[in-house]
Design brief:
There is one protein chain. The protein is of the alpha/beta class. The chain folds into two domains: 227 residues, DD-peptidase/beta-lactamase superfamily (Beta-lactamase); 209 residues, D-tyrosyl-trna(Tyr) Deacylase, Chain: A (3-Layer(bba) Sandwich), CATH 3.50.80.20. It contains eleven helices and 22 strands. Strands 2-1-22-21-20 form a five-stranded antiparallel sheet, with helices on both faces. A five-stranded mixed sheet has the order 18-8-6-3-19, with helices on one face. A five-stranded mixed sheet has the order 15-12-10-9-16. β13 and β14 form a beta hairpin. The radius of gyration is 24 Å and the shape is globular.
């Protein structure tokens, strides 16, 4: 078994600028875990409580994406098979259309349209049967979207689904029309049977808490209301919202899109099962895993990470519906194989880090990043991480822009970064820094200060 690189490293005092930032945020130094090592050599530059298991928030996505790149490979992709069950004559399918999900996280509206377009290119304009959606590749979801923070309208709380269409969300865009004194409400995507008020009164004043000002009511999936007003000073803004009835979202989306494309449907859009022993009429392939991993890490997309998490279980046991327990077992086995026996207190909960239970140490995450540095998927992993000051969840970083590729983690009481820093001397460093404290997000300047200190080759304290 390989030795933990950080175990023998001396514990140094934190850099003064980091301590000062923590003090300004009223966060004690013992709330911060840090590991800074030279990439490749493993030479430890700074370690501070690196062995302590803490809540990593979305840094847990590094485990999920690294495991997937390692086990599946960056070119791997999901397939969504489609069956035309019946003869097609004069534009009519005398039977049902079946679509079976396999966990593809990127079945956004454009790709659902392309799937239905392929159906039409095969000569189908009318379906004299049902459109059957098979979601059986994942076990029925027992999760509660309100369990994390009680806000079911947040897209990050959407639960995974083997046939996840458009993240089960709707984006409302508000376009001011000063001449009419209203803001137009654009809906992407319209859902069958759902009515949305298409205008809302304009108001004067600054663009502050504009979402609260709208007094939106999303509680009824079939009727969306805006009882308030929209500040004209906001200009055009968008609001993505998780649908209030995720169980029927797929059916309402597919029905609306099929009709919008000029298709006719005699039956209904229903949940069901794909036929056994019959070759699909065609398959829709997802983008490569490397592209999906980039979306997950750059933008810390929780539901995509959960889709990938369950996909790991499905790939191990394709004949059984994927469960969270099975996915945790896959991730734990992979982690043990890469790092040896897990340190006491390590806890794996889900694939996204949207959890109060997950516990990982900075040393463990640093070890994985060291292994990834010399591994075959290093370019794909690094390209997936936000670039400080430039893009993704690090675009507002105050450290020198463009010099670090770092995954971010953020919960109510967690703030963290983990990844690679390019120093002034041209050295690369592995950096992991996690704050667990009620004031964690107020202490983010301490993380920026640590990144800045690292890219200056950790000057003498």
């Amino acid at each position: 078994m390989l030795l933990w690189l950080a175990l023998a490293a001396p514990a140094w005092a934190l850099p003064p600028e980091v301590e000062s930032a923590l003090q300004r945020a009223r966060v004690p130094p013992d709330a911060l875990s840090v590991l800074l090592q030279e990439a490749g050599s493993g030479r430890t530059v700074l370690t501070h409580q690196a062995q302590t298991p803490v809540n990593p928030a979305s840094l847990a996505k590094l485990l999920t994406t690294l495991a997937a790149l390692d086990q599946l490979g960056p070119a791997w992709s999901w397939t969504t098979p489609v069956w035309l069950l019946g003869p097609v004559n004069d534009g009519v399918l005398d039977g049902s259309l079946v679509i079976k999900g396999s966990g593809d996280p990127k079945l956004v509206i454009e790709r659902v349209w392309l799937l239905l377009r392929q159906v039409q290119q095969r000569g189908v304009r009318e379906i004299r049967g049902d459109i059957v959606l098979d979601r059986s590749a994942f076990a029925p979801n027992q999760g509660d979207p309100a369990s994390f923070d009680g806000d079911t309208t947040r897209p990050y709380n959407v639960q995974p689904d083997a046939l996840l269409l458009n993240f089960k969300s709707v984006t409302y865009t508000f376009v001011p029309d000063a001449a009419r004194g209203v803001a137009q409400v654009l809906v992407d995507v319209p859902l069958a049977g759902t009515r949305v008020e298409r205008t809302v009164r304009l108001s004067a004043g600054p663009c502050d808490d504009w979402r609260s000002a709208l007094k939106a009511d999303f509680s009824d999936a079939l009727r969306v209301r805006f009882a308030g007003s929209y500040p004209a000073a906001c200009g055009e803004l968008s609001w993505p919202v998780a649908d209030a009835d995720p169980a029927t979202y797929n059916a309402r989306l597919v029905e609306a899109l099929w009709h919008d494309m000029g298709g006719k449907l005699t039956g209904r859009v229903i949940d069901g099962f794909a036929p056994l022993g019959i070759k699909p009429s065609f398959e829709l392939k997802s983008p490569a895993l490397a592209e999906v991993v980039r979306d997950i890490n750059k933008f810390s997309n929780n539901v995509m990470a959960q889709q990938l998490f369950l996909t790991l279980a499905l790939q191990r046991q394709p004949a059984q519906p994927a469960t969270a327990d099975a996915a945790r077992a896959v991730l734990r086995d992979w982690l043990v194989a890469r790092t040896g026996e897990l340190p006491p207190g390590t806890q794996l909960d889900n694939g996204s880090g949207l959890s109060r239970e997950t516990r990982l140490s900075a040393a463990l995450l640093g070890r994985l990043l060291q292994q990834a540095w010399s591994g075959p998927a290093m370019p794909e992993l690094m390209a997936s991480l936000p670039v400080n000051g430039l893009d993704g969840t690090l675009r507002r970083s105050r450290a020198t822009a463009g010099r670090a590729h770092l995954k971010t983690g953020s919960l109510r009481d967690v703030a963290g970064v983990a990844g690679y820093v390019l120093s002034d001397s041209g050295r690369r460093y592995v950096l992991v820094a996690i704050i667990n404290h009620p004031q964690a997000n107020a202490a983010r300047p301490a993380l920026d200060a640590l990144v800045q200190w690292s890219l200056r080759d950790a000057p003498s304290r």
